[in-house]
């Protein structure tokens, strides 16, 4: 881990590590230009049986988020520790549901970038015909828009739409990605973002695209998984991007 922040004596060591990485994730989203004012969320589940997770304090810009001011909430969105901030209720229905039900994932990130939101407008969603899109072939669920995600009754439907996958396209809205840890979630979010950008640019050029076969798409997905698991590519990409951000003086 790249963080040089001194741990708080009142914090469990693993919680402090996750707080530092999650703050870096928010800073990276700001650095990459993927923010949506004070909205959207990145969350990480804390170890233990209590289903607690960390999320951004509602009202702060992403660059203002620190390990100390991240809020700890339950899956219902209620604070489990005192804080001068609250969480954004729009995040609890989706993030709380995933953290409660998907024990194989620890981190969830939600964005509304222009490219991702444009793909979410199309009935076909991601076409998996470019280098990046092929890498998450078969890992995408789709959920029809029901309005702002504020209500508990939508939780089960969103979970059913996600199933055992790691990318949830919220139609007419944006995307949520989830993975086993923070670096892997960032890596998947970056891959999804690049796929959306290229798909949008290709569509703007007009003409037909070269279509990949399902076999080639599956091969790309399998190779990406092997790299991530065997060579720890997600961690290397994470560390390198955090170094680049800090070298440019964006965040320390």
Can you walk me through this structure?
With 252 residues, this protein is an alpha+beta fold. It has helices at residues 13-32, 92-101, 114-120, 155-162, 182-205, 214-230, 233-247, and strands at residues 41-45, 53-55, 71-73, 107-111, 140-143, 167-170, 174-179. The longest helix has 24 residues, at 182-205. The protein is globular, with a radius of gyration of 18 Å.
Largest sheet: 7 strands, mixed
Shape: globular
Order of helices and strands: HEEEHEHEHEEHHH
State the helix count.
Answer: 7
Q: Give average pLDDT, whole number.
A: 92
Which regions are unreliable across 5 or more consecutive residues at pLDDT < 50?
none
Helix content: 40-55%
List the helices and strands and how they pair.
Layout (H helix, E strand, L loop, with lengths): L12 H20 L8 E5 L7 E3 L15 E3 L18 H10 L5 E5 L2 H7 L19 E4 L11 H8 L4 E4 L3 E6 L2 H24 L8 H17 L2 H15 L5
Parallel strand pairs: 5-6
Antiparallel strand pairs: 1-2, 1-4, 2-3, 4-7, 6-7
Helix pairs in contact: 2-4, 3-5, 5-7
């Amino acid at each position: 881990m790249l963080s040089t922040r001194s741990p708080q004596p009142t914090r469990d060591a693993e919680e402090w590590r996750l707080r530092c990485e999650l703050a870096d994730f928010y800073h990276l989203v700001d650095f990459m230009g993927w923010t949506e004012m004070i909205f959207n969320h990145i969350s990480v589940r804390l170890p233990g049986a209590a289903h607690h997770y960390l999320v951004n304090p509602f009202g702060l810009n992403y660059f203002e988020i620190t390990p100390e001011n991240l809020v700890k909430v339950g899956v219902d969105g209620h604070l489990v520790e005192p804080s001068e901030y609250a969480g954004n209720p729009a995040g609890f229905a989706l993030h709380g549901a995933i953290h409660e039900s998907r024990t194989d994932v620890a981190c969830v990130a939600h964005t509304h970038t222009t490219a991702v939101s444009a793909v979410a407008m199309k009935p076909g969603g991601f076409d998996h015909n470019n280098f990046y899109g092929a890498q998450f072939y078969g890992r995408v669920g789709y959920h029809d828009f029901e309005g702002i995600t504020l209500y508990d009754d939508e939780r089960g439907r969103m979970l059913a739409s996600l199933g055992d996958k790691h990318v949830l396209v919220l139609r007419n809205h944006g995307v949520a990605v989830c993975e086993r840890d923070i670096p892997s979630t960032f890596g998947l979010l970056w891959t999804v973002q690049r796929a959306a950008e290229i798909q949008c640019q290709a569509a703007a050029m007009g003409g037909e695209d070269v279509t990949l076969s399902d076999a080639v798409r599956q091969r790309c997905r399998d190779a990406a998984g092997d790299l991530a698991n065997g060579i720890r590519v997600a961690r290397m990409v994470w560390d390198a991007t955090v170094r680049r951000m800090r070298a440019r003086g964006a965040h320390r």
